[in-house]
Amino acid sequence: MSKTDTVSDVNVRLDPAHVARARVILGGVFLGAAALSAIGWLFWAQSFYVSYLIGFLFALSIALGALFWVLIHHLVDAAWSVVVRRPMEFLTASLPYVGIFFMPIVFGMGWIFPWAGAEVDVATHFVPEKRAFLNTPFFLLRAVFYFVVWAYLARRAIAPSWRQDESGDVGETLSLRRIAPVGLILLGVTSTFASIDWIMSLEPDWFSTIFGVYFWSGAIVASLSMITLMVLCLRQIPKYHAIVTEEHLHDLGKLLFGFVVFWAYIAFSQYFLIWYANIPEETVWYIRRTEGPWGLIAVAVGIGNFVVPFCLLLRRDAKRSVWILGFSAAWLLGFHWLDLYWQIEPVYRPEGPVFSLLDIVNVVLFLSAGAWMTLGVADGRSLVPKQDPRLQESLAFENV
User: Fold this and answer.
1) For tag attachment on the chain, is the N or C end more exposed, with fewer CB atoms within 10 Å?
2) Where are the domains positioned within the chain?
3) Where are its TM segments located (predicted)?
4) Residues contacting residue 382 through CB under 8 Å, at least 6 positions apart
5) Nearest one of 325, 317, 80, 372 to 225, comparing CA atoms
6) pLDDT in tens, 138-159
7) What is the per-residue pLDDT across 322-345, written as a single tens digit (0 to 9) for each?
8) Is the pTM of this model over 0.70?
């Protein structure tokens, strides 16, 4: 098959009419969720801000994880994943706009972060020493820095790939390989500090040196789950179905299985180190989350994020099954949200979990906004990097 034939065969796009219709529906869903969320803010401000923070971090972790997958693809010069790279890029393209959704968190800092309130608990002896870090101006400055870095990395990670569709310039691939190692370092550092700022600082007494990795392990699994679901949905298009075969699904399944185990390893490592050290300032975080009603949520988080997907994806044929792979990906997204809920909600409801309509509304808010932006980016673009130099190898990929 000649290169010209290959480019013609993989030039598959979404139907513009279907995209327009879907974006209208998603826009309506977003506006409805925004209206309900605003009502929640008017009457239950505390609950609104907490559920909004969880929803924001849920959506952000998916976008950051997608950027990770794009960069790691270019870092290792992967060939098999070329045909499934576009969904990663489409998700990454939303990163320049996430700062807009951070604004309610800025306005609600006094409700969300104990150290940002007018009165700080004087019984807490760690807060004064952390004031140089935990203060509003520096907190906001760091947030701006994170969003600028993520927007820059997102653009550098996807723009050359899209230009290559038109130019066929191999130099675009080389530029992506050069930015990948630096980009991954910047992404890792900024995401770690963001998780410290937006989750760990909710309890300023507590600290964990592995917490950033714990956040990242969840983000990687959640983003790969969303990418997998997108690929499975796109395979409803006959031409895309012919391009992305069971061989590619198998590798997505292997990655998902591997990082489920990685999440469990990091989660257990953090728990084990804190339990073994038995330092009161550290153990209190887990005591609050493993005793009483919260203990049931802790068990659900462990079973849902590890035991169930581990068993589902263990077999080779399961990783190649559309239904098992799709169910596992959707399941993991749901339990990633529950993991974030388990990390954040006990700060405000130590007596036990109280799920509310606002929790659902804010998840719908962010998912509809993300889907609306993703479809807008995908509209008119090829669903496969049609002039990538390793496309032929990806099309012919087989698991040995």
Assistant:
1) C
2) 16-205+357-384, 233-355
3) 24-44, 50-72, 93-113, 133-153, 182-201, 213-234, 255-274, 294-314, 321-342, 354-378
4) 10, 11, 12, 13, 86, 165
5) 325
6) 999 999 999 999 999 999 999 9
7) 999 999 999 999 999 999 999 999
8) yes
